[in-house]
Amino acid sequence: MTGDIIVRARGITKRFGDFTAVDHVDVDVRRGEIFGFLGPNGAGKTTTIRMITTLTQPTEGTVEIDGRDITKDVSSPAKEDIGIIQQHISLDKDVSVLENIRYHAILHRIPRKEAEERIERLSRMMGLEPYMDRLVLNLSGGWKRRVAIVCAIIHEPRILFLDEPTAGLDTQSRHMLWDLIRGLNANGTTIFLTTHYMDEAEELCDRVAIIDHGHLVIQGTPEELCMGIGSWAVEYRDSDGVKQYRYFTDMEQSRAFQESLPLGSRVVSRNTNMEDVFLEVTGRDVVATEEVTFRI
Ligand SMILES: Nc1ncnc2c1ncn2[C@@H]1O[C@H](COP(=O)(O)OP(=O)(O)OP(=O)(O)O)[C@@H](O)[C@H]1O
Ligand SMILES: [Mg+2]
């Protein structure tokens, strides 16, 4: 069923001594969606994912997975619903791909015959077959991530958490991973991922939330968030040469504003994107250039 809530986090808070890394965050993830959790470095993304996946206990707040409170009962069967690929992938580098995957199958007590069937199917799906006997240490970052994905989904979790799945990967590997994530999602796995990349959020995610300094600042579909600040973006340089952004809900207003700029101004008029939303809500600068026009 698509649309009902599979993860419901309420008021989750994590303090490290006097420092509050995550401050009363509410998150709802709907079954069957790809949910993106965005934020600058140190915003609290990993800490939130760790609380939701029972890797760390929240200082305050509750997390329900499929209606079961995992913060109260960490041995709950709800844990079996979760698969996680951590930001710093933890595979055993000195053994083969196959042994790493088998180890996870054993951890989840999957009967041997069933495990071998799943390993065969998943390694085929991930294109890992030629690599099964290689030592993990000899694989590139993109292939290691695929191995990590197979390890994380061998027990067929209903929801897969990926912390920065494409960080540091080349463009080709990123696109391959996007396809894999889409494929898993199409097969019914709900996806929760964190990312720094706004294009990733826009391309992949049904809904996104942005966290900044431990506070959840905004949540919705990329389209809703773009419309929220105004669908028409105008980039221009002010009289000091500093790049400025203005957003408009109405194209006519956007045109009128451009007309009001001094002759010769360098103006970019385009649709608002997630980088704009990120800039607006976190105050962080972005680089965006499309359809450069000069007013003459
Ligand atoms: N175990 C810890 N002890 C003390 N502070 C911590 C601990 N873990 C995280 N923090 C701090 O909490 C804040 C949030 O960290 P977190 O790793 O969740 O951020 P993030 O959004 O995942 O960042 P990044 O984009 O760099 O991965 C940071 O300021 C970090 O230094
Ligand atoms: Mg992180």
Number of domains: 2
H and E order = EEEHEEEHHHEHEHEEHEEHEHE
Structural class: alpha/beta
CATH first level of the largest domain: Alpha Beta
Q: Percentage of helical residues?
A: 25-40%
Please state the overall shape, judged from the principal axes of the Cα atoms: globular
Which radius of gyration do the C-alpha atoms yield?
22 Å
The largest beta-sheet arranges its strands as 6-7-8-3-9-10
Describe this structure in words.
- This protein has helices spanning 45-52, 97-107, 112-125, 141-153, 171-186, 198-204, 222-229, 251-260, 274-282; strands at residues 5-16, 19-30, 34-38, 60-65, 68-69, 82-85, 159-163, 190-195, 207-212, 215-220, 232-237, 243-248, 266-271, 292-294.
- The chain is an alpha/beta fold and 296 residues long.
- The chain folds into two domains: 5-220, P-loop containing nucleotide triphosphate hydrolases (Rossmann fold); 225-294, no CATH class.
- Strands 6-7-8-3-9-10 form a six-stranded mixed sheet, sandwiched between helices. The protein has a four-stranded antiparallel sheet with strand order 2-1-4-5, with helices on one face.
- Magnesium ion binds next to α1.
- The site of magnesium ion (MG) has 4 residues, from α1.
